Amino acid sequence: MSTTKKIAGTALAAALGVSTLAACGGDAKDKGAASGEPKSKTVTLVSHDSFNASDAVLKEFEKQTGYKVKVVKSGDAGAALNQEILTKGKPRGDVFFGVDNTLLSRSLDNGIFTPYEAKGLAGVGEAYRLDAEHRVTPIDTADICVNYDKKYFADKKLAPPQTLDDLIKPEYKNLLVTENAATSSPGLGFMLATVGKYGEKGWEDYWSKLKANGVEVVDGWEQAYNERFSGSAGGKKAKGDRPLVVSYASSPPVEVLYAEPQPAEAPTGVSTGTCFRQIEFAGLLKGAKNEAGGKALLDFMIGQGFQEDMPLNMFVNPVIKDAKLPEIFTKHGVVIEKPETVAPDTIAENREQWVKAWTSLVVK
To answer: How far is 154 from 114, CA to CA, in rounded Å?
Structure first.
C-alpha cells in the first residue's frame, strides 16, 4: 500500500488495508505529569491506513505504561506524511508511523521529528538503522517483489520469471501488471528496484523494454492485485488475466491464511530477483503534547511483543534480531537474500525527476 503497501483482511483489502484500531480502555496512572508534560492518559499515533495491532498487544502496552493508544489514520503513506509536514510544530498526534526509506529524507529535511533514541534500539538490525541522529526508529521491513500465479505457469509449462532481466523476455510479453510509481508505494518501490539494478543511466532503457514487452500500469495495489492478477484468491471481482503482479514477498502467506480451506501450498510465488526492500519508521513528532507517552510507545514498538505481533496484523517482518516469525510465514514465506536498495539520500535527490521520467516514458 490504493497506495498503501500491504495485503490483509477481508478479500485481501487494498495493500494490506486493515480495520480501524480502537483505543484500549482501562484506568491508569498518568505518566506525563512526572516529566512536566500536560496530564494525559492517551498517546496518539498518527499513521497510514495500514497500521494494525492486536487488542492484546495494546492492552499489554497500557498495562506496562498506563497509556491508552489512540490511532489517527490518514490515507496512504505519502498523504499521511504530507499532513504532518503541513502541521509541523502543531502535530495531530505524538508519534508518526509509516514513513519508509523512499520518503525518509523528505521527512527529516522538513524537521517534523524530535530526536529520541528508543530503549532496545541495540536489538534492531544495523541495516535498518538509517538515521544516526535517532529522529526516527526502525519498526518493520517488507520486500516489494513480482508475484506469480503458479497454476498459470504450470498449465503453460513455462518457468516463472525470477529476475528483472527475465521480465523483458518475449515469453513473458503481456503478463505483468504493476502499480503507478507516481501514485502507489509498491509501484514506486518497483521502479526503485530497477534503479538499484541498472543504475541511474540504465533504468530508463530497461523500462522502455518493459513497456515494449506489454507491461500494464494501474493506479494502485488493490486494482493490480485483486482485479488484474489471475492468482488472487481474495478479489471479489472476476480474476484478471495477468499472471504477474507487483506485490510483496509476504503475499503468499496471506493467500494461504485467508483461503478457505487453507491449501497445503501457497498458490502464488515470488520472483526473488525482482525485489526492493522497504523499511518503515516511526518518530516522535515535534510539538507532541504527550512526549513521555510518545517515547514509551516507541520503546514498546521495538519490543518483542509488538514486533512478533506485526506479521499477522500488518504482514511485515520484524526488525529486531530476536523476534520469531509465525509458522505460516516460515512455511509459506520467501526470504529475499539480496533485494535491491537505493540510499535514502539518493532517493531524496532524484525521486521527483525519476517519477516524472518514468511517467513520461511508461504512462504517457
So the answer is: 53
